[in-house]
Amino acid sequence: MAGSSGFHWARAAYSAGLMPRRQLWGDAWTNVHFRVRGSTEAGTERLKERVGQWIAGRRVIELQRLAPAVLAGVLPRLYGQMLEVAYDHQDAGRPVFICTAASQETADMLAHVLGFDGAAGSRLEQRDGVYTGRFEGPFCYREGKPARMRELAVAHDVDLLASYGYSDSASDLPMLRAVGHPVAVNPDRELARAAAEEGWGVLRFEHLARRLKLVAAVGAAAALGGAGRAARARLAG
């Protein structure tokens, strides 16, 4: 997708009264920085710490209720062409999984909505319906992502060396190097350089929202053109 799903969680949490405006703007800036310059190891640790502090003591049901608003923000940011690639893999008999730093619940939800075969996300510890603020296992980011992928591969009998991996961020270099067929998608500068050096495939395309706007604009222009022709026909008649 274009940008980070984390911002859409922050926006949904703000709308639900679970996050102050100052933190929302901070997450918006983080999202812009992510898209322009990619992520850093230090930034990853700060993010993990901030997420842990924010969710500690919150009821699980509170975050589950944010799901519709999160989906409304995330789905239009998906790359339509990337979905076509994923479905082509499925049609060829290869299962498709989402691997994301988002919570396991979010990853499962997206996989279900998109018709994928499963997901690996960050598992958040909870007790008696409340988040503790700690993670169960690795934070599914940077080196933690291939660790979660290996767990998924064992559970589903998947050969990672025969698998394809797709990402737009240099933060996912460990993940891409864990599969036999890495592909950079609209890569940031560091990932583009690594892909060129290592001979990886590169895909570039627009996100779904922009395509939908383009289709709507073309449709509107066609409708106006048709109305104009109809008006001219009436005048001529």
Describe this structure as you would to a colleague:
This protein is an alpha/beta fold. It has one domain (about 5-210): HAD superfamily/HAD-like (Rossmann fold). It has helices at about 5-15, 20-35, 40-55, 60-65, 65-75, 80-90, 105-115, 145-155, 175, 190-200, 210-235, and strands spanning about 95-105, 120-125, 130-135, 165, 180-185, 200-205. It has a three-stranded mixed β-sheet with strand order 1-2-3. Strands 4-5-6 form a three-stranded parallel β-sheet. α7 links the parallel β1 (about 95-105) and β2. α1 (about 5-15) runs antiparallel to α2 (about 20-35). The radius of gyration is 21 Å and the shape is globular. The N and C termini lie far apart (about 50 Å). About 30% of the residues are buried.
Short description:
With 237 residues, the protein is an alpha/beta fold.
The rounded Rg comes to: 21 Å
Largest sheet: 3 strands, mixed
- The SSE order reads HHHHHHEHEEHEHEHEH
The CATH architecture can be named as 3-Layer(aba) Sandwich
Q: How many DSSP H or I helices?
A: 11
Determine the strand fraction and express it as a percent band: 15-25%
Which strands sit side by side, in order, in the main sheet? Answer: 1-2-3
Given helix and strand content, the structural type is alpha/beta
> What's the CATH class, please?
Alpha Beta
What would you give as the CATH superfamily?
Answer: HAD superfamily/HAD-like
General form: globular
Query: What is the average of the pLDDT values?
Result: 78
**Total number of beta strands:** 6
Low-confidence stretches: 31-38, 208-237
Domains (count): 1
Q: What is the terminal-to-terminal distance? A: 51 Å
CATH topology tier name: Rossmann fold
